[in-house]
Amino acid sequence: ANPIEYIEMRRKVGGAPWSANLVEHAVRSEIPPAIVSTRPMQVLKDTFADGVHLRNDLFSYQRKVEEEGENANCILVFERFLNIETQEAADLTNNLLTSRLQQFENTAIAELPTLCLEYGLDPTEQMQVFNYVKGLQDW
Fold it and tell me: Total domain count for the chain?
């Protein structure tokens, strides 16, 4: 698999997207239906999921790949796809993680306020959205 396919696969089969939905219930903040499927909300869910999965790949590489023989790990994907050493692949994975976290923050700060205005969310609905985002950040 190439790195893009790997990230997409993890979003589909990993637990983080399910966790993102669980956060909504945990913080008791229902996302207004009008904005659930908007680009900014999807970016937040995707970057949250990517952050969880990439962090897990970094921390579990030695145990899962070297000791257990697992092959679903971004570091391993980079190693094989780019034919590079493990440390370089780990650095790339860490850079990708940082990029995804920065995208999350940028979307939350730059796009959510505009989204709330565009859809005419009232103050209570806006607070629900921001509580949800805070819940994702705190996960």
Answer: 1
